[in-house]
């Protein structure tokens, strides 16, 4: 179990990790309803036009996505996790991974492809999201451990 209360989503990817993903920090989102604070990294305007986000959710964990279609169970950094298409999306260009770190707490890592030239499927998007989730969890574990 890992308590992520107060963790900074914008500190969840180090500059070296963001560089490895090929993205730069773009902005942050405040908490909204059950969604905790989040931070975005993008690669734009040249291809691949893609976006990663990391959210720190402490007002509800992985159970919030149990009704989502195409839900798949996976493991990230030794923690149980679920992956699904983004909310209101079909999933062919995106994937959201929710890492179950504690009761009612999850680290949410999303990948979205917004370009035109890179062949993209839900599985490729989920590989990218899982990779980013592993990196973010490494950093969060190092910061909170």
Give a structural overview.
The protein is of the alpha+beta class and 145 residues long. The chain has one domain (9-144): Protein Transport Mog1p, Chain A (3-Layer(aba) Sandwich). It is 21% helix and 34% strand. The chain has two helices and seven strands. It has helices at 15-21, 122-144; strands at residues 24-29, 38-43, 50-57, 72-76, 79-84, 94-102, 105-113. Strands 1-2-3-7-6-5-4 form a seven-stranded antiparallel beta sheet, covered by helices on one side. Strand 6 (94-102) and strand 7 (105-113) form a beta hairpin. The longest helix is centred in the C-terminal third of the chain and has 23 residues, at 122-144. The termini are close together. 39% of the residues are buried. The model has no long low-confidence stretch (mean pLDDT 93).
Weakly predicted, low-confidence segments: none
Name of the top-level CATH class: Alpha Beta
Mean pLDDT: 93
Span of the ends, CA to CA: 11 Å
């Amino acid at each position: 179990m890992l308590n992520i209360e107060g963790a900074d989503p914008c500190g969840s990817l180090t500059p070296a990790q963001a560089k490895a993903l090929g993205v730069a920090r773009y902005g942050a989102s405040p908490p909204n309803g059950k969604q905790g604070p989040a931070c975005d990294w993008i690669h734009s305007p040249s291809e691949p036009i893609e976006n990663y986000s990391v959210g720190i959710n402490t007002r509800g964990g992985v159970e919030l996505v149990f009704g989502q279609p195409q839900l798949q169970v996976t493991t990230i950094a030794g923690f149980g996790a679920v992956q699904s298409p983004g909310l209101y999306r079909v999933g062919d260009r995106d994937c959201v991974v929710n890492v179950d770190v504690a009761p009612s707490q999850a680290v949410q890592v999303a990948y979205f492809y917004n370009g035109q030239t890179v062949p993209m499927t839900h599985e490729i998007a989920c590989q990218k999201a899982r990779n980013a989730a592993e990196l973010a969890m490494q950093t969060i574990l190092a910061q909170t451990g």
